[in-house]
Amino acid sequence: MQAAQDFGANYKIPRRFGSYDEVLDDREVDAIYISLPNSMHHEWTIKSLEAGKHVLCEKPLAMDENESRAMFEAARKNNRVLMEAFMYRCHPLTHAVQETIRSGGIGEVRAIRTSFCYRTTRVEGNVRFQRQLGGGGLMDVGCYCLSFSRLIAGAEPIAIHGQAHFHETGVDDVASAVLTFPSQLLASFICGMSLQADNTATICGSEGYIEIPIPWKPPVKGATYVIAHGMPPRMDAGAKAAPVNPRETRTIDAPMELYALEADDFAATVLGGQSARITREDSLGNMRALDELRRQIGLSFK
Q: I need a surface site. Which of 52, 183, 212, 272 has the fewest CB within 10 A?
């Protein structure tokens, strides 16, 4: 309770609670944000929905597809909104990239490649390294790469192939995958918690390609993406070869911070009837792909 009091005082929050149950019992609380370890999403999302609260639940939605389905069924029964919290989906940068693709800016999309990696030495007490809590690189950051690939493809993968390196704690600390979509579009990614990468996204089309330097946490001001056309620099022409691909950098500003955008999107769904930015089918599809990848690499939470 003291931690809640201190936090509330620091941020001038008038109502403070000593337990999760106290929050659920308060009739003036309309919505709950679930940011607990993955293994606790299912239990506390359902409890919140049954208490009459709308829920914004952190990614990945649950430990597996079955838990996710049970959570959405609880939302349906209690006539409440449940939305998965992929905040990058709410930034106008993501929307601008989608519109560029829809308008034919790079022709037919044929390949997607993404990375989301970080190197941490803080393992002790880190929930991401605890299998029983739903840890691992795939669940922590690989889910972004899956979500993005499925968003751009506009479909569910028909084939998934994954590999992983395991940390001594029993979870994947490096994982990679290749996905095939119905149009034969290919997507590849690498993710992990013990390596570094550029953490970018590239969308390759028949007439050009899009580079997104910061796809996962775009800034409020000055978020950019690049549209390039033509051939890249010739690899055999030496260091003096000039690039021959025209490049256009587009800058996108957001009206507020990324998580505020997400909160407003969620509120608009709850209060204004706006379609959820991440739908039930979208969340179930992402969870299904995560389940298959975990099956292939041999990571079970049971």
A: 272
